[in-house]
Amino acid sequence: MKTNIIGAAALLAAVLTGTSGYSQQGDGTEVQITTNIFKPNKVSATADRIGQLKLPEGFTVAPFAQGLGNARIIAVSEAGFIYVSRREEGDVLLLKDKDGDGKADGAPVQVAARAQAHGLAIKDNKLFLVTVKELFVADIKADGTLGPLEMLLGDLPDSGQHPNRVMAFGPDGMLYLSVGSTCNACNESNAENATVLRVTPDGKSRTIFASGLRNTIGFDWHPATGELWGLDHGIDLLGDEVQAEELNRLEQGKQYGWPHVYGSGDIYPQSTPVGGVTKQQWRDQSAPMVVGYTAHAAPMQMKFYKGTAFPAEFAGDAFATMRGSWNRNPASGYEVVRVHFENGQPKSIEPFLTGFLTDGGKAHFARPVGLAMLRDGSLLMTDDANGVIYRIAYTGSAQKTSNQSPTPSKPMEDMAAKGVGLLIALERQETDTEGSIKVSSSTFDNAAVIPKAQSEYADGVSPDLRWNAIKGAASYAVIMEDPDSRPIKPFVHWLAWDIPATVTELPAGLQEQLRLTEPEGVLQGRNSSGTHGYFGPKPPVGDPAHHYHFQVLALDSMLDLPATSDRDAVLAAAKGHVIAKGSLVGLYQQKIEPPKQ
């Protein structure tokens, strides 16, 4: 079936001529693309079909377990317990292979039941389970069964098009949780969609680690460098060859293009950034992909190989499952790929386990999803179509990979420590000045309590702020910080600059976006939650009242900074340009634990 919609062949021409680069609709963009809807028929996983699977020389593949239904994500504990989530059945299964024969011992045991169960992670003999909106944890018992599930989070974003949350513990001990977009390409109303979140293991604190990621289900840390890499799903309906699946190096605070820019900087013709941000500006502040792979292959779990059973040439490489396309002809994916790295950098993505497409590509007998390593160094791959778990092993004679050292934690720890342990803005050298500003608000006085509606425990709306005009000011900046927070101290709650010199007040309830249109041109940078705009007080329940400093700087110039900048970048740019400063301090305490949603 072929459908003509906006899309791809002319997209390149549109980008080259600039016709698709403006921020407003009605910019003259005209793009025609032919796309396909093609869903290979599902057939049974017979012994003959399994026998036709192809792997590099010396590797073997065979069923580990069968008849599991919608088997999705897989995780293996240090004791060798194998856990598999099933989204459609809404549960988690336990399997074992005590005798080490490469096959599951007996029937699986259901150990948890939660609607939309999907992502799994294991740490300190605890199993973490994430559904669409909830994060749970349970103790792993001596026999592999689980203790009671305890809810840690109940307010993850609603799902839309991508409900399948996944997670993994980083070398820094933090939980990284991927939340996909609600759509193919749109401006999300919830800033946590299309991101990777960084969550404390107790669930009490979380921030947006990276954004602009349509659906990064597969991610892992390179065993030698400690860098985080992820495979992101490309935008659909741009044609058979567009958009390539993206391999990205994920770094704290970076934006990765979606929904307005993709690949190495190509512009998506239909979407429009909010706040008057142009697509060229969006592209300039987005990180391009590092390596691409065949469009619509649908990357799922990705794992760096950290065992000692595969040939030495696979050291430092990753493997990823490609669930397979529904909108490409011929179909792509339906395979396991090898992501080849050299000296810590990716060089190529190439097929590794193929053959799940059969009958000349018109049928399939597996859609690969989950991927995990057993203690013996073999890999397990789940198939959510026929419910088979496949075991991939090496039986050849090549020299094996050597023992792996622990994955370095310093890269992730250094990113998390950026900006932490510093003085608040008005106490730093960058803001040295003799001039002063008087700051006020209609909703609270200095050293008084901030209304609950302005906290994240309630409405989270910004208060109005006012200050006196400063002679010679070309612009103003606002920096709101909490020096009583932990572990991020100080916690930056709000960052706004390029407020015109003619503006001496901000109204309540400002939009939470990169750029404002009222007041025109004001930029709002990245706060400590990873969002843009005001993030209200949210101290831990039971803490003494925290102090929130609403700091205003008068500057003798505008700041030439992208809207993705953080507090330290703003202060560095403001150094030598601050002609006056002042603050309003509000207090907030949360005594009662709000109900988990």
Question: Any overview of this molecule?
Answer:
The chain is mostly beta strands and 597 residues long. It has two domains: 9-415, 6 Propeller (Neuraminidase), CATH 2.120.10.30; 419-588, Phosphatidylethanolamine-binding Protein (Alpha-Beta Complex), CATH 3.90.280.10. It is built from five helices and 41 strands. A hairpin with a 4-residue loop joins β6 and β7. The longest helix is centred in the first third of the chain and has 9 residues, at 9-17. The protein is globular, with a radius of gyration of 26 Å. Residues 1-24 have low confidence and may be disordered.
Question: What attributes characterize this protein structure?
Answer:
Neuraminidase; 7-stranded mixed sheet; 34% strand; 597 residues; 41 strands; disordered N terminus; single chain; Phosphatidylethanolamine-binding Protein; 4-stranded antiparallel sheet; mainly beta
Spans of at least 5 consecutive residues with low confidence: 1-24
The helix count comes to: 5
In angstroms, what separates the terminal alpha carbons? Answer: 43 Å
The chain-level structural class is: mainly beta
Overall geometry comes to globular
Biggest sheet: strand arrangement:
33-41-40-35-36-39-38
How large, in whole angstroms, is the Cα Rg? 26 Å
Q: Count of DSSP E strands?
A: 41
Mean pLDDT: 94
Helical percentage: under 10%
Number of domains: 2
What is the top-level CATH class of the largest domain? Mainly Beta
CATH topology of the largest domain: Neuraminidase
Proportion of residues in β-strands:
25-35%
Main β-sheet description:
7 strands, mixed
CATH architecture of the largest domain: 6 Propeller
Query: Superfamily at the CATH H level of the largest domain?
Result: TolB, C-terminal domain
